[in-house]
Amino acid sequence: MKPARPMKNSNHRLLSHFRTRHLLIFALPVGLVLMGAKALRDDYFEISKQLEIMQSAFRELNLYYVDELAPGELMETGIKAMLDQLDPYTRYFPESKMEDVRFMQTGEYGGVGASIEQTKNGHTIIVDLLEGEPAEMSGMLLGDRLLAVDGRSLDGLSQEQIGDMLQGATGTEVKLQVDRPGASGPLEFILTRAKVKVPDVPYVGMLTDKTGYLTLSSFTKTSSSEVRKALMTLTDSLGAEQVVFDLRGNGGGLLREAITIVNLFVGKDEEVVSTRGKTPDWNKSYKTFRSAQFPELPVAVLVDGSSASASEIVAGTLQDLDRAVVVGEESFGKGLVQQTKTLAYGTRLKVTVAKYYTPSGRCVQRLDYSNRDEEGAVHALADSTLRTFYTKGGRTVLEGRGVIPDIEIESPEANYVLAGLLDNHVLFDFAVDQRSQWEVPESAVDFELTHPMWNNFVTYVASMEEAPYASLTQQALESLWSTAEDELLVEANASALSQLKSGLQANVRADLERHKVEIQEALEHELVVHLYNTTGEFEHGLRKDAVTLKAVELLESGAYRDVLTGPQNLNRR
Fold this sequence. Notes:
The protein is of the alpha+beta class. 40% of the residues lie in helices and 19% in strands.
């Protein structure tokens, strides 16, 4: 609202008062400017002072420390320690890591399309193969153990060092030597590095004859165009009348791509997100800029605890505008915006510059990094500080807890047996060991875990020297035993402790049978990944995914509209 104008009056006294009043108002900013200038000078002095202290400390360390130091590594450690006091998204990238910055923005890198992981015994294993990229096309398989790259043994090298060896300029060759279970000896692959693009939309397909599905894995510079193409394929070619849009596991990315994706569903001049920072430059409002291409297409958005940042902008905005129903678990809660700043000598700093707010006015940020406890830990915002906001149609939404779904479906927590099997890669190792022994259907949709497969798995786990899991009770006993040793109480209580340990000893076959349903589901999924890769994983898994099935039910039963216009609208402002 504009301030009311003073009424014109010929009375000299009123005019004099009017002028005096305005002189006082004009004088106030001058005082503020002077105060601001002093504060600015104080800030500059403090910054200069601390930089001088750091420079002198750095110089003296390099001159006089007893052992030789690597100045670059020492300074990088200092910068990272400084940033650790802020938030985990403010990061420093030395010149050697510029490829990481480019990958975050583009999803592209020069390499072979394989992901590696080092096991506890130091082996380097292939754990992921991108479909259609050099490693998969050459015949490499999940579980292949890397022995050498270009003739250089990998013994003693870190996972990061080996990853750097696999990457390189497009068109260059790299020779890999691998060990494969069941092979008579080492295998060699000569791969030509390619411009690898991690697909933003790894899968598009139909769930039913009416409902389409697409999943978005990240927000890079091509995300909106890939989503647009996927939606056109679903609606124009495959006949989808509604769509499930899966953002689970998507950690975010470029803000502009989130805005453009929202614009596919929402018309021109609708606010998508606003940002507020310390500097006025970051107090901005971002609106849709063109007509929506799919303005009437019913949409269900899926989120979980790993959906963050740009994913939360898309889900939260479509929820605020009552344009889509959100299904799944509470999202991660990252309401912070980063910008990459160029530093000296080709280095970069990705720094948090603002918080973002969805159209209702809420911020989804869950953790309060500005207030740490005495131990330096960060906690979620207190419930008492959270405010309620309203969607365009009057439904209530809460800030500070990520995006809370309209329909919440919690994933069951893995029991301790399954958790141990996953943590120790038992399912992965079994799939590598057994996958070539069975005849399997051509389509992943038709794959099912058979009784012989399950029996082989039980035998495989039972034959291990030690059970690959431990109950909380067993872990508590180990802690108790350690404490008893420290207090010299083991000998006096040896019989009781041994009896308790024997009683808690894992019975592998009984434990697997007790948790059979959950373990079989996870094992079937692992086998599908090894046998059919990413496409098969989606084709098989979506049939049984409770969150996806609920979204389909909402869309096809008409309950979708009921959620968006239902009883919650009684809270309309």
